[in-house]
Amino acid sequence: MILLQSPCRYLLQVLSTRVQNLDKGVELDCQCVEFDDVRYHIQGTVKNPNILLLSVSLPTPPPETVFLGGLPPGAIDAIKAAYGAVLQILDPPRDGFNLTVKLNLSKLPPDEEHKQALLIKIASIREVVQGAPLRAVLKQLISRGPKSDLNKLVSLAHRPNESFFVVPQAEKVTLIFPMQFKDSIDTVLATSFLQEFVEARRTAGLSSAPPCLWSPSPPQELIGASDEALSANAGFVSFVIFPRHVDGRKLDRTVWSLSTFHAYVSYHVKCSEGFMHTRMRRRVESLIEALDRAKPESEKAKKTAQSRSFKRLSIKDGRGSSMNSR
User: Fold this and answer.
1) What is the tens place of the pLDDT at every residue in 181-216?
2) Residue 34: which of 135, 137, 186, 159 has the closest Cα?
3) With DSSP H G I counted as helix, E B as strand and the rest as coil, what are the percentages for the chain, rounded to 5?
4) Sign, Cα dihedral of 3, 189, 186, 261
5) Chain centroid to CA 265
6) How confident is the model at residue 110 (pLDDT cuts 50, 70, 90)?
7) 274, 20 Cβ separation under 8 angstroms
8) Are 254 and 246 within 8 A, CB to CB?
9) Strand intervals (E) in the chain
10) Rounded to whole angstroms, what are the CA distances from 291 to 287, 288, 294, 296, 306?
């Protein structure tokens, strides 16, 4: 299966092109929209080509999800830790956006490899901002210090007006995703996909993956959640994360995979739907060809005879009588 990549490819292309052409004065004003209604707006001027303004709009959070200053908890600290002096947060952000930052391209590292790595990190700003609260919870899981908010249900936004839930515990963290789809066909495919997803976890090659459960009804951990969050038409998926799943470099990959799990399922549901439509069209074409080959020769000859047309011409001679000719 295909995993979604954290860098925004369009944003990375714009940044790379700008860095390679700093000596050319070009006005820059680009916008793009990513899955789950995440929007980007990047601007640059001719007078100061080293400075870029990047604005990010996140999905609208549901009522049970808390945003601080229009951003998820811990997002500001995560941005400062990830980018340092290269990026400066502007307050307030541009109208219609949750975050606006100023990029100083002159402070990029001179080494090409490190420069490209930092550009990829900037293009992954969605992961840094949107995954900040989940990253903080998972860091507590691997730390030996005192843990706060144990067994407390935490709501994190990941789609417009939709959230998933995190339950921190002493030795593990449980994540619960209410799977909601608007299209009835998507709902059926997603339900089947998620059940097979749980079964695949039981194979020997995936024994070290996080335990995964699916249920058509809300699990007990969601007691007290809003009615909107419990109205999932494709069931509820639960993951149990242990310290081994977030150790070292695994943390960032785990945070991104969990934050975009619904988009991951939606992508594969649409791919499955498109594949089935293609197979159906090919099947219909093969059946039509088989029917054409099965027609008897007499019927084909009859059709050929009926397709010929003859006209009778009436020619009058000088005495007024007519002669027929074909």
Assistant:
1) 888 888 988 888 888 877 777 776 677 788 888 989
2) 159
3) 45, 20, 35
4) negative
5) 9
6) confident
7) no
8) yes
9) 28-34, 38-44, 51-57, 87-90, 99-104, 154-159, 162-168, 173-178, 212-215, 236-241, 313-316, 322-325
10) 6, 5, 5, 10, 21
Structure token digits, residue 84: 């340092």
82-107 tens-digit pLDDT: 888 888 999 889 998 999 999 988 88
Residue bearing tokens 């709501």: 155
Q: Which domains does the chain have, with CATH numbers?
A: 1-130 (3.30.1460.20), 145-293 (3.30.1460.20)
CB within 8 Å of 126: residues ≥ 6 apart: 6, 8, 34, 38, 56, 58
Q: Which residue has the tokens 């997603």?
A: 190
Q: Residues of 66-101 as b/e, b for ≥16 C-beta within 10 angstroms?
A: eeeeebbbbbbebbeebbeebbeeeeebbeebbbbb
Q: Judge residue 4's burial from the number of C-beta atoms within 10 Å of its C-beta, 0-12 exposed, 13-18 middle, 19 or more buried.
A: middle
The whole model's pTM is what? 0.77
Q: Measured in whole angstroms, how far is the alpha carbon of residue 179 from the centre of its chain?
A: 14
